[in-house]
Write a structure and sequence with these properties.
Blueprint lengths: L2 E3 L14 H21 L2 H7 L1 H8 L2 H5 L3 E5 L6 H10 L17 E5 L4 H10 L5 E7 L5 H16 L4 H4 E5 L5 H9 L3 E3 L13 H9 L4 H15 L8 H14 L4 E6 L5 H15 L1 E3 L5 E4 L2 E4 L10 H6 L4 E8 L15 H4 L6 H18 L4 E6 L4 H22 L10 H10 L21
Parallel strand pairs: 2-3, 2-4, 4-5, 5-6, 7-10, 7-11, 11-12
Antiparallel strand pairs: 1-12, 8-9
Helix pairs in contact: 1-12, 1-17, 3-10, 5-10, 5-13, 11-17, 12-17, 13-17
The protein binds 5-phosphoarabinonic acid.
Length: 451
């Protein structure tokens, strides 16, 4: 079970942190937000309690396991959760292991960015005959996803392979281009619930199919999220990690700390910070309040990796502008550990001998946390006893629920993303999409270009 330690968000542990009075002043509002969120039954909660979504993935388990590779095609909310799951719950050398060493599960690759070097390298690596392509798009109209999809269709055509035998879509149950193709060409399509937006969809078939394909216990994942939800619904803020997290981030924002750093001390959890970054940025960064006023609201999420970024970011976090809160992700027990042999006896190095790499990593986390506190920089810790599917499920739920609470506190809609649309429309215009030819967008009047 995950543990949340908020101690260094508060006075007197961190000078300038939250006081008891400040926490007290917001309790009533938080309780109301929890009640409201529970009552509204958001899509990310509903999906856990409707078995059809997990069953739709379990139903095709044997077919999926008949392949050697899974290539996931999707972007943003249609990939970040699955990337986080795959990186957290498979060993770093997963794709280099034999099928037997992988217990029959699949190597996993992602086509997210339309970077031709990356796409070409992935497609060179996999043998299409032994590959399942999972094309994921809620809207079924995202340009990057549809471009990759057509590249894959082209590849299958050249190799004389049937699309319906190598492609599975994950998309809206009724609408969109992928749904249409699925009907026309009898390509299997798994449903993303209609009330579920991309960045909240990791616990639907969007994340479950890729996770299952690389051996993740998806039942444990869902169980973890369900158990976390019970805690999220608790009206006692001292027992509710999501409520406390929202309270802390909101109160620190009021003090000018509008940057939320997530810093895992674990390479396996680093992609989780990417998932968080999208959830926090796209959900909370909004121009308009619920009643239509221009407020340009938001908290800026940053990701950093412990300990690597101690040698890059911590100077700034300790002594730069006091505009951040830091969330450390800690792992109590790693899958493996490495002993540092006592090779030298000189003082400068001898203290390391006989210790393990995990000892050093954990000491560095504590060192960073305490130095930040001494500089009046607030932080919190989320501890994973081990990295497992159940706790990953918990993590997703706690952060989704916190985001919903933050939306309510900030008086914005956390479920839309109108700010992404304009750029998309300009892209369509540049790529010659019908209906967008006449779209007007500014060219710089004054050019400042240096070759
Ligand atoms: O959270 C979101 O809604 C977005 O990040 C989407 O996931 C992303 O734009 C991809 O959209 P789609 O799944 O429709 O292809």
């Amino acid at each position: 079970m995950l543990r949340f330690d908020f101690s260094f968000m508060f006075e007197p542990n961190t000078p300038g942190g939250i006081t008891d009075e400040e926490l007290c002043s917001i309790k009533e509002r938080i309780v109301q937000s929890v009640e409201k969120t529970v009552k509204s039954r958001p899509g990310f909660v509903n999906v856990l309690f409707d078995r059809i979504y997990m069953d739709s993935v379990e139903d095709i388990r044997q077919w999926v396991l008949s392949f050697d590779n899974l290539v996931v095609v999707g972007i943003g909310g249609s990939s970040l959760g699955a990337v986080a799951l795959a990186n957290a719950l498979t060993p770093p050398d997963w794709n280099y292991l034999s099928k037997q060493e992988r217990s029959g599960y699949l190597r996993i690759f992602f086509l997210e960015n339309v970077d031709p070097d990356q796409a070409a390298a992935v497609l060179d690596e996999v043998d299409p005959r032994e590959t399942l392509f999972n094309v994921i798009s809620k809207s079924g109209s995202t340009a990057e996803c549809l471009a990759h999809y057509q590249v894959i269709r082209g590849l299958l055509q050249i190799r004389g392979l049937k699309p319906s035998e190598h492609i599975v879509f994950t998309t809206d149950p009724r609408k969109g281009f992928l749904r249409q193709i699925s009907r026309d060409e009898k390509i299997l399509a798994l449903d993303i619930p209609q009330d579920l937006g991309g960045r909240f969809s990791v616990l639907s078939p969007v994340g479950l199919l890729p996770a299952m394909a690389c051996g993740v216990d998806i039942k444990a994942l869902i169980d973890g999220a369900k158990d976390a939800y019970l805690k999220c619904a608790d009206l006692n803020i001292e027992k509710n990690p999501a409520a406390m997290m929202a309270a802390c981030h909101y109160l620190h924002k009021e003090k000018g700390r509008t940057i939320s750093v997530m810093m895992p001390y674990s390479n396996k959890l680093f992609s989780l910070a990417d998932w968080f970054r999208q959830l926090w940025a796209e959900s909370l960064g909004k121009k308009y309040s619920l009643d239509g006023k221009v407020i340009n609201e938001g908290l800026t999420p940053i990701k950093a990796l412990g300990v690597v970024d101690q040698h890059s970011q911590i100077q700034l976090y300790n002594e730069g502008p006091d505009d951040k809160t830091i969330t450390f992700l800690e792992v109590e027990s790693f899958d493996r550990d490495v002993l540092i042999p006592a090779v030298h006896h000189q003082e400068d190095i001898a203290y390391l001998g006989g210790k393990k790499l995990a000892d050093l990593l954990k000491s560095e986390l504590t060192g960073t946390e305490r130095s930040l506190a001494m500089n009046g920089r607030p932080s919190m810790r989320v501890t994973f006893p081990t990295i497992n599917a159940y706790d990953m499920g918990q993590f997703f739920m706690y952060y989704e629920f916190t985001t919903a609470l933050m939306g309510d506190l900030l008086q914005i809609n956390p479920y839309d993303q109108p700010g992404v649309e304009l750029g998309k429309r300009i892209t369509y215009s540049l790529m010659g999409r019908k209906g967008f030819e006449v779209l007007k967008f500014p060219e710089p009047v004054k050019k400042v270009v240096i070759d």
